[in-house]
Amino acid sequence: MKKAIIEKRNDPRELEKLYRSNKTAFKEAFISVYPQIKESPLAACWNERLNYSPEGFDWATRKDLIFLFIISAVAGFIAKLPAILQIEEDYFYARNIGFIIFPALTAYFIRKNQLPTGKISPLALGIILGLVFINLFPDLPDSDTLLLSSLHLLLFLWVLLGWTFIGGRINQPVKWLDYLKYNGDTIIMTALILATGGLLTALTIGLFATIGIQIETFYFNYIGIFGLCAAPIAGTYLTQTNPQLVGKVSPLIARIFSPLVLLMLLVYLLAMIYSGKDPYNDREFLLVFNGLLIGVMAIIFFSISEIAASTKHKREIWVLLILSLLTLIVNGIALSAILFRISEWGITPNRAAVLGGNVLILIHLLMVTFHLYRVIGRQGKIAQVAKTIGIYMPVYFSWSIIVTFFFPWLFGFG
Predict the structure, then answer these.
(1) Burial group, residue 14, by CB count within 10 angstroms (0-12, 13-18, 19+)
(2) Which keywords does this chain's UniProt record carry (predicted)?
């Protein structure tokens, strides 16, 4: 490698080929021989390229800090409304959990992307519509449609946040993959912030306990709740302004977890056959099965978002293809179980919602699996897989609208 670098030090195309053939070996060899070829302008450029490191941590400006403090305080205030207004916590949080964080994050990206009023207005209208609808929903504790509306309202708000993240542009399917990557990065950063906050909490409470002052109730009711609300907001700011913080961690997690999830899913399916357990006659097991389906699909999409911008990763793509095929099997079992239960006991809001959701997921997984197969066969590119993921987001948004706002009327709020 050293000899080749010396010989081709003035040939940009050949140096690039050497670099792409083995990046690690090229870097080691180049650093070793650079004193011999440093007179070459091209070698000097390569030296800067290989030794470049991002600038230091990007600290928040005063305006940023004030804005982050305001939206965090508002989120914390919303979370404290049950205590302030004497509202039953189960009643409030079941309906409004999504309005604690999603509007704050939406406000962050409105400011970051400087969205015009014409794009903010329909966004604000959608959030207000969801807020009014879910809080005017009749107080029926046994209502299936209330639970369905509350759950799908989270999906509705999540897509609105994504629309804000990509700058309010409709025809940007690849940008949706950036949004999925943002979700993964923010979850990692938020988990780190919460872990650090948990350690600080334990230390603070412990120190006060040693002097005979019990602050647990006050701490969790005021400081803790505001800290929980601020964590994803701070995580969002850090991932957007300092992407290098998780830039190497997220791809690593994706590459480690994908094979592990594949192994887990395979063992789980075999264990299910061995145990004799099935989702056809066990409602709780069917719910767990669908939760598994959604979780694995999310991991597939997150992993694709991490490798889409990189060079070829054939092993990772093989893992994702096999994982997608297994997830299709899981989806097929869940779908057949739902159809069986509908044929035996009739249609209900829950069964209709799960049936529709599973059909949409099945179609989407088939599209993603097909394009992953084309990538393996060198008939397609990973960018097409990314586009397939993003182009389907409006479908999920439409389904969230149907279940949130129309299912209660279709099923008499039952």
Answers:
(1) middle
(2) Membrane, Transmembrane, Transmembrane helix
CA separation for the pair 369, 375 (Å, rounded): 10
Distance CA 384, CA 389 (A): 9
Q: Are 321 and 372 in contact (CB under 8 A)?
A: yes
């992407």: which residue's tokens? 243
Beta strands in 81-220 (DSSP E): none
Token pair belonging to 211? 């002097």
CA torsion sign for 288, 293, 299, 305 is negative
Residue type, 383: A
What is the Cα 274 distance to its own chain's centre? 33
Q: What is the pLDDT of residues 296-335, one digit of tens each?
A: 888 888 777 766 655 456 778 888 888 899 889 888 888 8
| Tens-digit pLDDT profile for residues 371-408 | 888 888 878 777 788 788 888 888 999 999 999 999 99
Domain ranges for the chain: 2-50, 62-244, 248-410
pLDDT by residue (tens digit) across 27-63? 778 888 888 887 788 878 878 777 765 555 566 688 8
Tokens of 321: 């293809």
Least confident of 107-111, 273-277, 294-298: 273-277
Rounded CA-CA distance 176/394 in Å is 10
User: Cα(304)–Cα(319) distance, rounded to whole angstroms?
Assistant: 11
Over the Cα atoms of the chain, what is R_g? Answer: 25
The dihedral region occupied by 413, where left means phi > 0, alpha psi between -120 and 50, and beta the remainder, is left
Measure the CA–CA gap between 221 and 170, rounded to whole angstroms.
Answer: 41
DSSP string, 25-89: HHHHHHHHHHHHHTTSHHHHHHHHHHT----S--PPPHHHHHHHHHHHHHHHHHHTHHHHHT--H
CA–CA gap between residue 72 and residue 186 (Å, rounded): 16
